[in-house]
Amino acid sequence: MSTGPRRTPLMIPLVWERLEQAEQLRRARAFEQLMSRRRSVRAFSEEPVPPELLECAIRTAGLAPSGANKQPWKFVLVDDQAIKREIRLAAEAEERENYQRRMSQEWLRDLEPLGTDWHKEFLEQAPVLIVVFKERFGLREGTRRKHYYVDESVGIACGMLIVALHQAGLACLTHTPSPMNFLARILRRPSNEVPFLLMPVGYPATGATVPRIERKPLDEILVRNRTTRPISS
What we know:
two-stranded antiparallel ribbon, 8 helices
């Protein structure tokens, strides 16, 4: 059965700046250095975060690519102390079950170098929480709309959010207590939204420390299947 003539999409000119190779390399190395200083933080100052910084970071996350441009994400900002405490208590209840019953011994051994346990004080310490929800499907005027590659799309948006926060001089932590259904209940989100990530955001506390960890070297994460010509410096 014919569906009628195919519509031609409205196209606009691409805005693009072609850089000299030396400038490309300079920017790439500078950004690598910036991101090498990013760490997950679990001790936050109570100093408030300017709302403009959070809004800018979330707008940046909203620029992420998504399946069929459905943009299947919602970012919920929580700065109310009572709600943060409710979230902490619910998260700790699930995490206590994880650490005491659900996690395998191998999992617990792998977590030991990070010094984590079921206590999640940072959920109250951080001045703001960003709770990311994925939209399993869209709702427009009571009609259900299909979304595509939801997990992949929201994951990319979260990565861009982390980078935007770090670029703005803020610290964050990606926290995923499992299960996370309590977040939808506490924040009264609609049934098409599923919690994806709970992210405390703020400035590190004075004297904050982080685990000493090592990153895998390039030759362990890069697989070359063709010859590439390096950019001359």
